[in-house]
Design goal:
Blueprint (H helix, E strand, L loop, with lengths): L10 H7 L25 H13 L2 H5 L21 E4 L11 E4 L17 H10 L34 H4 L4 H13 L19 H6 L19
Antiparallel strand pairs: 1-2
The structure holds heme C.
Heme C (HEC) binds next to α1, α3 and α4.
């Protein structure tokens, strides 16, 4: 099965999201280690998070497109024509199996239907490690390998095409800023998005097969790169 076979109108925006890769810092924003202290939930942090959400096309899938004033900004799937189809099925073979319907969720801080009930760390962990906030406790994750450290042995990963394998390379401060914006910079909007479908291993096999590369990425230059 190929998780990348996705039939949907926003394939173009999906492609565009994979070109945004930014550098990583090992400095957790919530602590003072490394000398950089980011004031949690300050206006600047929220505004920085908003900028990252805009430039990383979150609205392209989660609603509102590229306009924070737009209808359904980050409110998740609203229309039955919007779900993704992931798996063997695609535009040419809509009935091929397996075929899973996945749905972009409500990212507004609504307590019942959005991110309101999760902490900023749970949102951070979903962007850095792909761990579903529903199924992952509010703890600092100490490894990227299932079963090592406190990384769950059987992780519940976010369904494709959520591009967390790319987002995880963003700097800690950037991910904290996004979490701060989603929790404190957006008005709650009630929109219950149906659960995504998926394989029984919660996508572990798909992500293992995908060439995600190590995290953190190998140092520059790899065999494909050069400085000239
Ligand atoms: C290509 C489409 C796509 C893009 C772009 C995208 N997402 Fe997602 N996102 C999804 C899908 C689909 C899910 C649902 C995954 C699931 O159900 O397991 C999801 C789930 C999430 C979740 C988990 C929410 C929950 O309640 O479980 C968070 C948090 C999230 N996305 C944040 C973001 C942010 C922040 C951005 C931009 C930096 C972004 N997403 C961009 C498709 C996308």
């Amino acid at each position: 099965m190929e998780a990348s076979q996705i039939s949907r109108q926003c394939v173009a925006s999906l492609l565009s999201v994979f070109i945004f890769v930014s550098c990583r810092s090992s400095t957790p924003a919530a602590s003072s280690s490394g000398g950089i202290q980011v004031a949690q939930d300050s206006r600047e942090q929220v505004v920085a998070g908003r900028q990252l959400v805009l430039t990383h096309d979150c609205g392209g899938c989660h609603g509102g497109q590229h306009n924070p004033a737009g209808k359904g900004w980050l409110a998740g799937l609203m229309s039955p024509t919007q779900p993704f189809h992931v798996g063997a099925c695609n535009v040419d073979n809509p009935t091929a199996k397996p075929c899973y319907v996945t749905r972009a969720r409500n990212l507004t801080p609504d307590n019942a239907t959005g991110l309101g009930r999760f902490t900023e760390r749970q949102i951070f962990n979903s962007l850095r490690y792909g761990l579903r906030p529903e199924d992952t406790p509010d703890v600092e994750i100490t490894s990227t390998t299932p079963g090592q450290g406190n990384f769950p042995l059987n992780p519940h990963y976010l369904a494709p095409p959520m591009p967390w394998p790319s987002w995880r390379h963003m700097a800690d401060q950037e991910l904290w800023a996004i979490a701060a914006y989603l929790k404190h910079g957006v008005k709650p909007f009630t929109n219950k998005v149906e659960e995504s479908e998926g394989p029984s291993d919660f996508w572990a096999g798909v992500y293992a097969k995908r060439d995600m590369g190590p995290y953190p990425a190998l140092p520059f230059p790899t065999a494909n790169e050069q400085l000239r």
